[in-house]
Structures are given as structure tokens and as C-alpha cells.
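ingest -> validate -> predict -> emit
validate: passed (alphabet ok, no gaps, 250 aa)
predict: started
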Amino acid sequence: MKILLSNDDGVHAPGIKVLYEELAKFAEVTLVAPDRNCSGASNSLTLLNPLRAQKLDNGFISVNGTPTDSVHLALSQLMDPLPDLVVAGINNGANLGDDTLYSGTVAAAAEGRHMGLPAVAVSLVGKSEGNYETAAVIAANIIKRLKAHPLPADQILNINVPDVPLADIEGIQVTRLGHRHKAETMKSMEDPWGRSIYWYGSLGKELDAGPGTDFNAVANNYASVTPLTVDMTAYKSMEQMTAWMSEVEV
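emit:
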């Protein structure tokens, strides 16, 4: 099995190293990732500057671009033959609910899907960063299952694992995305020279986090697996919108 591994925390992040070591036990893994932390980059592309790929002493490939750049460059220029699967992670922090829209980790996986390959995003939910191995083992077990029983290539598996020892994981739940309250407003302050600067506020608290959601699963020490699709069409609104548009003059 050939795997392309990327992330949004950067090529030197501890999570990607742990996941690489776990996947390399049963697969041929090529690691191509941004040269810096690109958290929150979503699906952004570098269009106004050239991309450069540098092979590091450990064999990892560093790209001066975004997570999406890294995956696209790897699949279009650096890998021949193409891999069987694209994996992104392990992210330092959750990618739950609405966070998936901003996530560079999920975006890296989505780019693999855009390029016609099945894809998996993996995140560690917690602040201690002490249990990357837990997420790596669970992700590897799911990927082994994918190898034997592939899922449709138009889906992305978004895996979120609580930051606890593997022995404390209660199991794996298939979930839907929950929702947050809106985030806090931006914070305004001054730099040392008296000029205004702004920081994003904290994430909003959970709004929809009941049973069946990804928030609920990880809160109860379950690994959450959410199948995602990039088709954002609101199919339930199609009929209503058709009637609504009939009153709009051309």
C-alpha cells in the first residue's frame, strides 16, 4: 500500500512524525508537508509565488506552501506511481463540527479527494499533546480496514481522537458534524509602538453537541469518525429555491 502523508502543522510537527512511523509499519509512506505551521489555511492555494520542494535529511519533503499545495504538488509532480490513499495529520487539536471548514488538515485530505483518491484526516483532541500514539494506532487500524475494504473515493474520513492513553479509549463511533456557537469577536490591542493590532477570539462553545455528534463522541472518550463530502449543495432546498426563483425577473 502506498500512502501520501501531509498535514497543516508543518513538516517538523510531532504528530506527523508519530503517524509516519505507525503507517510505515505496513505501508510505503511518502511525506510531503508545509515548511511551517499553516493551521486554519483551509483549501488555500499559492498562486502568486512559485512552489519549492526540499528533501530533508530524514527523507521528508518540505514545501513552501499550504497543505493543499503540498498534496497537489506531491500528486501532480513528485509521486509516480500515485499513492493508494492520502492521509493528513495528526493535527494538534480538534477538527470537529464547523472547524472542518477552516481546517488545513481536512483541506489536505480534501485535495487528495479532488485528485481522485480516498482520503483520511486525523486529529488529536486535547491540549496535552501527550497521546499522539493513540491517534496513530486508531488511524492505522482504520486505514488497514480501508485497504481490505475500500470506501468510495468521493468521501473523506474525518477522524478525531481524544488525547488520552489508548487503554482509555471506549471505542470508535461513526458520527455527524456538530455545530458551535459563533466565535468570540476579534480582540483589539496595541503593539509596543502604539499601533492597533487584532487577534481572533476564542472558539465558540458547542451548540449542537448531543448524541451522534463528533463533539459528543470525543467528550466521552470515543474516537469519532465522520464521513465527509465536498458537495455543499443544499439538496433539501432545491425545490423551494426553484419556486422562489420563479418570481425573479430576468
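The CA atoms of residues 155 and 225 lie 12 Å apart.
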